[in-house]
Structure formats: C-alpha cells, structure tokens
Amino acid sequence: MTINNNPENKQAEPGRKITLDVNNMFAARLGEEQGIRKSQVAELKPRAREVHYRIQEQKPGFARLPYRQDKVVSRIREMADERAGDYDNFVVLGIGGSALGNIALQTALNDPYYNLNTGSREGYPRLFVPDNVDPERFAALLDLLDLERTVFNVISKSGSTAETMSLYLLAREAVAEEVGQERVAEHFIATTSRDSGYLIEIAEREGYPSFSIPDDVGGRFSVLTPVGLLSAAFTGVNISELLAGAAEMAERCRMEDIWENPAYLHGALQYLAYQEGKIMSVMMPYSHALKDLADWYRQLWAESLGKEVNRRGERVNVGPTPIKALGATDQHSQVQLYMEGPYDKIITFIEVENYRRNLEMPELYRDLDGLNYLGGHSLARLLNTEKQATERALTKRGRANATIKVSEVSAFTLGQLFYLLEMETAFVGELFDINTYNQPGVELGKNYTYGILGREGYQDKKSEFKDWSDPDPELIL
Ligand code: PA5
Questions:
Q1: Ligand 1 centroid from CA 96, angstroms
Q2: Averaged pLDDT of the chain
C-alpha cells in the first residue's frame, strides 16, 4: 500500500500505524468454495473506479472533517480548558449517532475505570452518556449527580429527537430546582444544526453556548464534529491527535486502486462476500478499549447499509447484518457459532500490538502441568495468542476473516479507525447503489410514537397505529 507524501499529512510513525491483512478472505487460505479469488477483485475494479469518482464528486461531509475544523477545535479546547474544572460531571444527552461516538472515544482513550478513579482523571469531570430513555437508569443518574457541579451537552442534529428532548426537559427542570432559574445556562451546552430544529431555538432563548453539526454530516458520521469532540476534550483527550489520525487515514483512503486503499479493499471484500451469502459482518476487537468502537461501527453499518430501495427506486432490501463481539470474552460465547454454524459471516478482528499496560503472570503452582505453562507470560501475550489461535482455527475451517492491526490504542489510531470505517461504509453503500446517508426505515416507528403521544400533525399516525386486526388470543401465552 503506498502512502501519499503530502507533508501536511505525514505517514504515520511506527507507533501510530494501522495495517489491514486480508489474506484470510482469499481462496489460497480458505479454499475455493469459501474464499474470494483475486480475479473477482479484478472484475470489480471498473465499478470500484466509478464509485471512487462518485465519492470524490459527492464530497461527503465526513471526509472533510479532518481538515476544516481549526476554529471549532480551538473553541472546544478553550471551553474545556476554562470550564472542565467547574464540573464534576459531563453528561451527554443524545442517542444513536449523537451518543455512540462519545462512548467509543471514552472507552478507548480514558482509564477503564475513569469515572471511579479520581487519580487518573486529574480534575477532569466524569462522563455519563445514558443513550436511552429508560426511566430507571435516568432517574438513578439524576440521583447520583450533584447538579451544581454538572454540565449537560444536549446533542441532536434534528433538534427534535423525542428521546433526547425528553431527557433534556427532565434535566432542565432538575437543574433549575437545584441551582435556580437564573443559573440554568451555566449547566447546558447545545450541539445541533446551525439554523433548524428546536434545540437551537431553545439554546438562543436560554443563552446556552452552542456548537454546530455541519449540515452535510449525518449523525452516525459525526463523531469527529463537536458531537464527539466536546466530551472528549472535557475528559482530557487530545482532539487534535484524533483529527491528525483521521487526516493520515484520509490520505491513504484517497487512492483509487482497491489494492492501495484499505477502506476500499476491506469494503470490496465484504461486498463480494455478501454476494456469496456471507451476509453477517462481525467486528471483534481483542482489546476491551475498542469494544465500544465495535458498537459504534454496528450502528454506522446498519443504518447506512440496510436499505429497501436502491438509488433508482428499485426494491433491493440489502444490508449486511453487523455483529459486535469482543475477544477473548466472546470466544466463550460466540466463536462456537462462527466456527461451526452457517458460512454466512465475515469476521473482522482488531488486534492491538502494544497494550498501554501489561501484567506478567507469576510462576506459581509449578507442579500443576495444566497451569504452569502460564507463568512468565504476560496477559497481552495471552490475549494476542488467543486472537491468533482463533484466527488460525477459523481459517482452517474455511471461515472468512480479516485483521486490522493497530500498533496501540491512542487518539491518533482511533482517528484513523473512525475514518477508515466511515470511508469503507461510504464505499460499500455506493457499491450497493443505495443512499448511505438516510435512514427512512426508522421514521414510521418514530411517527407512531409521535401520534400516540399527541404530537401536533401526527393524528393520522395514531389512527393508523390502532387500525390493525384484533390479536388472536391463542397467540398470547
Ligand atoms: O445516525 C443517525 O442519523 C441517527 O442515529 C441519529 O444520530 C439519531 O437518530 C439521533 O438523531 P438526532 O441527532 O437528530 O437527535
């Protein structure tokens, strides 16, 4: 793979590298029946070329994020520098694309017990991202927080999402009771569209500071906007490194040739495998820090690629089902299925070369043969050996898999991963010839909710919701 020599976006240093190994997707390793042939990739090349130029022409908003944010990054940093010390708690009120990136960043880059560990937090606030309207969970959170020392970042691109706005209403009232109406504005930030939706109107009325989500960046592609950057900066993450990593990957993903572009190569193989019945895409990091990256990717992949119609309005009902798994935990949960179940999956491992901490096992119980082999090895060695062993075993059984190898988990490599997976999603969406950036399938359920709860303009949905056949009592136990 060649890398652009643009001095602005230097090739990643050894400790900040990502490689993609797709050997185990091909017939040479998997056998003719399950493996992809290089000739199939060659046949896809003309389509991939067209797709490449279509993406270049579309200029999707997410692809410009690594480069165009100097001002907003300075503003976020200034705010975090000035105000992080004023709060013990930073709460993100958002859902889906307005929440999952925050969680992925936090899990990857901060101490695993960050919220519990005041030492490692060094004065930064704890982070909470409820990402749901479960009343038990939110009530418990409000009970837990000292609202005098809490700031809420309300994130909604549309500015009207029921889940987010409900939590906002509750938080607004609880804060006002605690600190008084006149000081409410000290406890809220709004992150939303510049000029549409209710949230920006509320922010203006209440005097909340606000950050914009660019119009051309959809929720699930917005982690590198203030949506993800603000909570990251408030918890001490180096957001410039995150964007630098994304910029480095953007250079690598600018290549037209599938064989030189990691996003295109992985995407093309997933697309070819899908055509042959491998309709599930498992992401399995062998690093707890990356477990929520797999969750973020699950949403990115599902909402972007699961579509009923193609660009020409023809019914296609496409979309690989994304599955998140975690090594080694899910070796004791999912791997039996991946080894012996249907040949309908591709597994993408993420392997980390250097863990930020490591532990060597003591050499105890030397007389116990089934145990004494562990002494002297480190947990990192055990975890990576388990990954390599699982990879080998899956390959031996003809199960398609690929590995994204990350030199270490850092803001830089996480930025690389976000960008890689976003570009891959855009590329696969174009191969399927669908609109990657909409999500019409979630509208009907939302509209029924609005109708039932009495939102103006949705009365017809209330009647439609009620208008179905009576339940058959035999079918309810
Ligand atoms: O990716 C998406 O577009 C969605 O998951 C949205 O992020 C989610 O529905 C929340 O929308 P909003 O940010 O408008 O509140």
A1: 5
A2: 95
